[in-house]
Specification:
With 396 residues, the protein is of the alpha+beta class. It has helices at 2-40, 50-68, 180-196, 199-219, 224-228, 231-243, 250-258, 283-317, 324-334, 347-395, and strands at residues 44-45, 48-49, 69-72, 78-84, 87-93, 96-99, 108-114, 118-130, 145-159, 261-262, 269-281. It folds into 3 domains: 10-114, no CATH class; 118-281, no CATH class; 296-354, no CATH class. The protein is built from 10 helices and 11 strands. The chain has a 4-stranded antiparallel sheet with strand order 8-9-11-10. Strands 5-4-7 form a 3-stranded antiparallel sheet. Helix 4 (199-219) crosses helix 6. It is elongated and about 150 Å long. The mean pLDDT is 76.
Length: 396
């Protein structure tokens, strides 16, 4: 009971500090106008006409108004977290022009937070997977180290500044507590957690470490072949670790894209998109995987080609006078795998022409061989003669 009373007094005090500057402006305007009217009617204050007092008060009110006027930008979108006497309060001020009092004795100002959606692309490399079961020795307890992979991940987040009234946040203590005032207070607490986490830069570093830790842990239990095709599994596990939500159906995915899910790591953000991109091999493993895939595809093509040939050979063999060799020759020629030359000889005249051509060709080759031998003999005799002359000249 005492705690509730103390919290109520704190809220009243905060509201008072926020309201007083506005009351000062309102009273200044009203008092200035009244004094102007009284001065026009001929009254005076301290022997000075009242309209002088009214003009002075209106000028002072205008100066006070100018000092208190502050703008929270809308492009890019910002919101303000109230700070009174250097202490952050779970009170949120939306974009636009507002009356603040960043001077003594009020010291009422705001900390501005950029709340636009931010997209982050991450690449994790040198992730070591375990070896395949068939690559391990029988009875081995400690698994072999397998290949290395890299994983590309992208996600979108924004500071948790607009919690739907029907939504639960990690700060909810009472499920039935859904009033707009309580939700606004919870929004403020989430934004304070966002600032305490280092703002955008600090949150991005923390989320990166959480994701990398989980991916490396997952790789210890999966081979590189298994994890390469486990994009949805990686996404679901990482979203569950960051938000506590299970992405088991289309309804949950739609909710993720619409409102997002608040984090459960105390970062004060909402994750509204999470995608696992490329999961690919690295280094020599990538070359080996590419070679294996190419060879596998070639083997599949060869198997399909042989099945096609066997099928058509069977069909040809059903025809009269067609043997298996003839059918295979026809298929190879038709599919461009081989060439076939056909020559026809008709009568003795054709045979004589072919025989004469063959004999002529053989005679030409024999004559060419004899010329080559004579030329070699001539060159040899010239070399012998030249060597004798050189020897004779040396003797003289």
């Amino acid at each position: 009971m005492a705690d509730k009373q103390r919290q109520k007094e704190k809220k009243d005090w905060r509201k008072m500090v926020i309201v007083i500057p506005k009351l000062v402006l309102l009273l200044g305007i009203i008092s200035g106008i009244v004094l102007l009217v009284r001065g026009i009617l001929g009254t005076s204050l301290l022997k000075i006409p009242s309209y002088y007092w009214g003009c002075g008060l209106l000028v002072a009110t205008a100066i006070f108004f100018r000092l208190c006027l502050r703008r929270i930008p809308a492009r890019p979108p910002y919101i303000g977290l109230v700070v009174i006497w250097g202490k952050r309060l779970p009170i949120v001020i939306p974009e636009g022009w507002h009356i603040l009092a960043p001077f003594f004795p009020f010291l009422y100002t705001v900390t501005m937070i950029r709340v636009e959606k931010t997209n982050i692309d991450l690449t994790f490399s040198d992730i070591r997977c375990k070896a395949r079961i068939e690559d391990q020795e029988e009875g081995q307890k400690t698994p072999f180290a397998g290949g290395e992979i890299s994983v590309n991940i992208s996600y979108t987040y924004y500071p948790d500044y607009k919690i739907p009234l029907d939504d639960k946040t990690p700060d909810d203590k009472t499920p039935d507590d859904k009033t707009p005032e309580d939700k606004a207070s919870k929004i403020g607490k989430r934004l304070i957690a966002f600032i305490n986490s280092g703002g955008h830069e600090g949150v991005q570093k923390i989320v990166r470490d959480l994701i990398e830790e989980d991916i490396r842990q997952m790789a210890k239990d999966e081979s590189w072949e298994e994890i390469t095709f486990a994009g949805d599994k990686i996404r679901n596990q990482l979203v569950k670790k960051l938000t506590g939500e299970e992405l088991g159906d289309e309804e949950k995915l739609a909710e993720l894209g619409k409102n997002g899910f608040p984090d459960i790591a105390g970062l004060g953000i909402r994750i509204c998109r999470f995608n696992v991109g490329k999961v690919k091999e690295q280094g020599e493993l990538a070359k080996a995987a590419e070679t294996f895939a190419k060879e596998l595809q070639e083997r599949r093509g060869e198997n399909e080609e042989m099945e096609f040939i066997f099928e058509w050979v069977k069909k040809f063999k059903k025809l009269d006078g067609i043997t298996g060799d003839v059918a295979l020759d026809v298929l190879q020629v038709e599919r461009g795998k081989a060439t076939r030359h056909i020559q026809q000889f008709r009568g003795l005249e054709g045979a004589a022409k072919i025989g004469g051509a063959l004999v002529g060709k053989l005679l030409k080759e024999d004559e060419r061989g004899k010329k080559d031998k004579r030329s070699e003999g001539g060159e040899k005799s010239k070399k012998d003669k030249r060597s004798k002359e050189n020897k004779k000249s040396e003797d003289e």
